[in-house]
């Protein structure tokens, strides 16, 4: 048996883009990375779930690497610790697994080094590290995150979301973000940019009002990334062609290959069963929007079992 952790960090998963909100819209969803932090004589990471098997167990781990970077920004040295990692966020599936690790790493430095960072300061650090605000913002704040990063500073809006349920279609194959970005064009025609921006603007208005019928219509009209990524994710193309009375819309989750379906509240189980019959080769599961972002538990009484 090991000693009780000093504290526990819990970070939700996230989906990004929601169609035309490319690199600027994120939504926190009900999968989690949980990190029990114990004092130790060296860096060590222990995976408590098969999803995380094979990740680096020392300071090369993304979470520790992020924490050390965050501490160094403030001329602090991060003390050694043993991290016990539990997660049900699948890796390289477009559900923000790296963003959750980055947010957890920044919080680890904040706690261990007494940085007293504001939530906005944490978000700026995370956005600089990740390159865009969508996933990290949703993981940190919870709910809906709409924001932008100009290379120096962030501008954003965060609000809770209540009137929707989610069904995720998760293919068995991984899709690295770098590969998913390789298929995107380097430029867009000016008029295409104007049209795409208009669609994204209406999407934002619909999301803020929780007008999911209108939001679903705008998801169909993305011009920034989904038309180019369909070739990598055949499930997206097929889902966009399906119709169901309780299905508002679908979007590629981040860089994919997970596709999220936005469904009428109370109908997720029905839609899940329907989609599982069509996508028998995929994992199909219900998810909820979570309006609480990162959560810290300071006093854990139960010791961690030896692994």
UniProtKB/TrEMBL annotation:
**Which terms in the Gene Ontology molecular function aspect does this entry carry?**
homoserine kinase activity
Q: What class of enzyme is it?
A: transferase
Catalysis performed (reactions): L-homoserine + ATP = O-phospho-L-homoserine + ADP + H(+)
Report the principal subcellular site.
cytoplasm
Keyword entries, A-Z:
Amino-acid biosynthesis, ATP-binding, Cytoplasm, Kinase, Nucleotide-binding, Threonine biosynthesis, Transferase
The family database entries (InterPro entries) matched by this protein are listed as: GHMP_kinase_C_dom, GHMP_kinase_C_sf, GHMP_kinase_N_dom, GHMP_knse_ATP-bd_CS, Homoserine_kinase, Ribosomal_Su5_D2-typ_SF, Ribsml_uS5_D2-typ_fold_subgr
Pathway field: Amino-acid biosynthesis; L-threonine biosynthesis; L-threonine from L-aspartate: step 4/5
Binding annotation for ATP: 90-100
> Does the keyword field hold DNA repair?
no
**Top-level taxon of origin:** Bacteria
Q: Does the keyword Transferase apply?
A: yes
Where would I find the GHMP kinase C-terminal domain in this sequence? 204-271
Q: What EC designation does it have?
A: 2.7.1.39
Compartments annotated for it: namely: Cytoplasm
Which positions carry the signal peptide feature in this UniProt record?
none
Residues of the GHMP kinase N-terminal domain: 63-143
The record's section on Pfam families has: GHMP_kinases_C, GHMP_kinases_N
Q: Which PANTHER family match?
A: HOMOSERINE KINASE, HOMOSERINE/4-DIPHOSPHOCYTIDYL-2-C-METHYL-D-ERYTHRITOL KINASE
HAMAP family in the record: Homoser_kinase (MF_00384)
Q: Which family does it belong to?
A: Belongs to the GHMP kinase family. Homoserine kinase subfamily.
Q: What does this protein do?
A: Catalyzes the ATP-dependent phosphorylation of L-homoserine to L-homoserine phosphate.
**Protein name per the record:** Homoserine kinase
């Amino acid at each position: 048996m090991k000693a009780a952790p000093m504290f526990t960090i819990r970070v939700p998963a996230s989906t990004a883009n929601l169609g035309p909100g490319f690199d600027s819209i994120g939504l926190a969803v009900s999968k989690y990375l949980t990190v029990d932090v114990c004092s130790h004589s060296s860096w060590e990471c222990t995976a408590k779930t098969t999803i995380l098997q094979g990740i680096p167990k020392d300071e090369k781990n993304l979470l520790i690497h992020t924490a050390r970077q965050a501490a160094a920004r403030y001329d602090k040295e991060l003390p050694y610790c043993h991290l016990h990692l539990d997660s049900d966020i699948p890796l390289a599936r477009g559900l923000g697994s790296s963003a959750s690790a980055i947010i957890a790493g920044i919080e680890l430095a904040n706690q261990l080094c007494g940085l007293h960072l504001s939530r906005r300061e944490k978000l700026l650090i995370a956005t600089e590290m990740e390159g865009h605000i969508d996933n990290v913002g949703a993981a940190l704040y919870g709910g809906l995150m709409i924001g932008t990063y100009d290379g120096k500073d962030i501008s954003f809006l965060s609000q809770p979301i209540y009137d929707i349920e989610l069904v995720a279609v998760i293919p068995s194959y991984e899709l690295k973000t770098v590969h998913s970005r390789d298929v995107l064009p380097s430029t867009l025609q000016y008029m295409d940019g104007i049209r795409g921006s208009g669609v994204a603007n209406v999407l934002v208005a619909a999301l803020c009002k929780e007008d999911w019928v209108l939001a679903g219509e705008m998801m169909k009209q993305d011009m920034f990334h989904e038309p180019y990524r369909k070739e990598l994710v055949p499930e997206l193309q097929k889902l966009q062609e399906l119709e169901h009375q309780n299905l508002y819309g679908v979007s590629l989750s981040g860089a994919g290959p997970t596709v999220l379906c936005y469904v009428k509240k109370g109908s997720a189980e029905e839609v899940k069963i329907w989609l599982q019959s069509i996508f028998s080769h995929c994992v199909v599961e219900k998810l909820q929007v979570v309006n609480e972002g990162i959560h810290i538990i300071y006093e854990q009484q139960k010791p961690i079992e030896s692994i």
